[in-house]
Amino acid sequence: MEFSETTLHSHHTDGVLVIMAKAPRPGMVKTRLAQTLSVEAVTELYRCLLDDTMALAHALRSVKVAIMCPASDVQELAELAAGTTAVVAQQGDGLTAALTSVFAQFAAGGQRVVAFNSDSPHLPVSVLASAFEMLTAHDVVVGPTHDGGYYLVGAKAAHEALFHGDGMGTNSALDTLLARAGRLQLSVGFTDLFYDIDVEGDLTRLAAELRLAPARAPRTAAWLKQCQQAVPRLRSAAGDL
């Protein structure tokens, strides 16, 4: 399905929330979890995380939602989105190129744009709303993670130098981003400290939280309930889902 520029820049919206995603293919997503789960299980987990992330994104009624992905993944992700979400090919390879593409494409005319990762569907929707609010008073907004990366970044202009050579989810990404924002004299606002799903500890924490509140990410909660029977470490961490 193709989406026009008008579709993404409707005058009825206050901004664009862009999910950074890949097609859920074996061996291509969440590779650090392969020490805990089979490749097939990791792939299915990512599919559930992405589904719940899209649902979370659409809970923000005042913004448009898009997916930014490698060009080779557009068709598969468009099929998964089933017409609910614009799917746009990034220019170039890797996360740096993807982030640069997000703001080059969507931050025209000062529109507020937030790029959000595809593996934090348990994030309260109020945090996403606060990211857009912060962009009224700041040049950049960042959502820091506990491991030194960031789960979202927003801006209302394209700042290519902000992302060159780094991306979300690495141990030095946040410090690098903030240093570059400082050199560019950009003001930065922060949303709540949070975590994404990269390693086993993240997954066991998520399983425990979704045991108490499965509605936060229902597809992922259902998958974890089934998966814990085969993964004792998830079972011991999460209790009886």
Structure write-up:
The protein contains nine helices and seven strands, in the order αβαβαβαβαββαβααα. The chain has a single domain (5-197), classed as Spore Coat Polysaccharide Biosynthesis Protein SpsA, Chain A, CATH 3.90.550. Helix 2 runs antiparallel to helix 8. Mean pLDDT is 88; it is low at 1-12 and 237-241. A seven-stranded mixed β-sheet has the order 3-2-1-4-6-5-7, with helices on both faces. With 241 residues, the protein is an alpha/beta fold. It has helices at residues 5-8, 39-58, 74-81, 94-106, 125-134, 173-183, 200-212, 218-227, 232-238; strands at 15-20, 64-69, 86-89, 112-117, 140-144, 150-155, 188-190. Helix 2 links the parallel strand 1 and strand 2.
